[in-house]
# Entry
Amino acid sequence: MANDPLEVADTSGLTDADWAEINKLKAAYKSGGKRALSKGLKELAIDPVRMIRVIGALFPREVSEGIRDRLAAEGITRDDLLEMIRKAESPAKKEH
# Structure
């Protein structure tokens, strides 16, 4: 669709469930405009991880910049973030 405000710009990392949400948002916008889209986004916000993936697929630059700005406002550097990711990905030590 020409001038589609919900055109997917980045498909990397999207799951089938994410695509279903994107299609629901597109259908809501097509049938009910901004008001219906807003309602759909509120429903999507129940799952913040999915919402970030979906919104990030639609607006990757804006989401990336927003996250970067928020991390900077919290004083979290790139190195801090990489360390957090490394710790989260390493196997947890089990205590008995």
About this structure: The chain has two domains: 15-58, 60-90. Residues 60-90 form one domain. Helices lie at 16-44, 48-58, 60-73, 78-89. The longest helix spans residues 16-44.
